[in-house]
Amino acid sequence: MSDHLLALEAFSGRQLQALIDRAIELKGESKAGKRQQQLAGKTVCLLFDKPSTRTRVSFESATYGLDGKVIFMSSKDSQLGRGEPLKDTARVLARYVDGIVVRTFGQEIVEELARYSGVPVINALTDLHHPCQILSDMMTVIEHKGALAPLKVVWIGDGNNMANSWIEAASVLGFSLTLACPEGFDPDGEILKRAQERADKPIVLVRDPAEAIADADVVNVDVWASMGQEEEQEARAKLFAPYQLDKRLLAGAKGDAIVLHCLPAHREEEITEEVLEGPQSVVFDQAENKMHIHKAILEHFVG
Ligand code: CP
Ligand code: NVA
């Protein structure tokens, strides 16, 4: 396995499945009150350039839960914010800590940190990917549905970082994925092309959300304007209105379909209150699973 977790396509289906299986095991152990010490003596640095509630706290909690220690640093409070080169920062941090979890803008930033750091670097969201989130999402699907391979997974809305990581996951783990994105908001073209070439199940991009959601087992939505796109919020809200996941649209999916949203959610924008709080929504299981998958990730890459 790669020494870093930057994007899902660097891994095999077997490797990703092993991380998910391990997270389910660790979740069971922690619910049973078993002491976990896989990070004893280890320190993890969280280097965040963008806001976070779930990812930050679940990584911190996961590290403490494995008996490790955490240092949180926002880049604007560090010398990075004053222009110190990434390659210097990477080499310095590696002298102090055993792993670096990064949330930032460009994917090239996590790649450069990984190239220079000498300790594992874990991508906790970039503009291009959100790999740890998709691992916890897939874990949630497996818990509720048993397995991914027979399912039709659907993505409705912006072709953003989450969509890109779902595309890679579908190609690596082998499940069917249909995305409905408005024109001009497609997922990354290269990622989609590579994934379609590699996939043994269809990965399809359409415009019409009703067409995409037909017979879906798993329905995913996310905010219409991601972090860093706040100025586009108003324009996007108009364009994306037909992509809102409401009861009527959801009725096109299978009756037992589950609804995922990585959160934070904007109610009455990408999803209605009724659907988010409805019986098909598993968003809080999904949020909880971030902590368990982060334990599996930290154990594997840092432990
Ligand atoms: N889902 C997710 O990554 O949430 P945060 O932005 O709160 O970390
Ligand atoms: N696509 C969203 C995900 C937030 C967890 C963003 O990048 O802001």
Description:
- This protein has 303 residues and is α/β, with parallel strands linked by helices.
- The protein folds into 2 domains: 8-130 and 289-301, 3-Layer(aba) Sandwich (Rossmann fold); 133-286, Rossmann fold.
- Helices cover 43% and strands 14% of the residues.
- The strands form 2 sheets. The protein has a 5-stranded parallel beta sheet with strand order 7-6-5-8-9.
- Helix 6 (161-173) packs parallel to helix 7.
- The protein is globular, with a radius of gyration of 19 Å.
- The mean pLDDT is 97.
- The protein binds phosphoric acid mono(formamide)ester and norvaline.
Task: Throw out a few tags for this protein.
303 residues; alpha/beta; Rossmann fold; 2 domains; five-stranded parallel beta sheet; four-stranded parallel beta sheet; globular; binds phosphoric acid mono(formamide)ester; binds norvaline
Provide a brief overview of the structure.
With 303 residues, the chain is of the alpha/beta class.
Topology:
Layout: H1 13-31, E1 43-48, H2 54-65, E2 69-74, H3 86-96, E3 99-103, H4 107-117, E4 121-123, H5 131-145, E5 152-156, H6 161-173, E6 176-180, H7 189-198, E7 203-206, H8 209-213, E8 218-221, H9 233-240, H10 247-250, E9 258-261, H11 273-276, H12 283-301
Parallel strand pairs: 1-2, 1-3, 3-4, 5-6, 5-8, 6-7, 8-9
Helix pairs in contact: 1-5, 1-12, 2-12, 3-4, 5-6, 5-12, 6-7
The structure holds phosphoric acid mono(formamide)ester and norvaline.
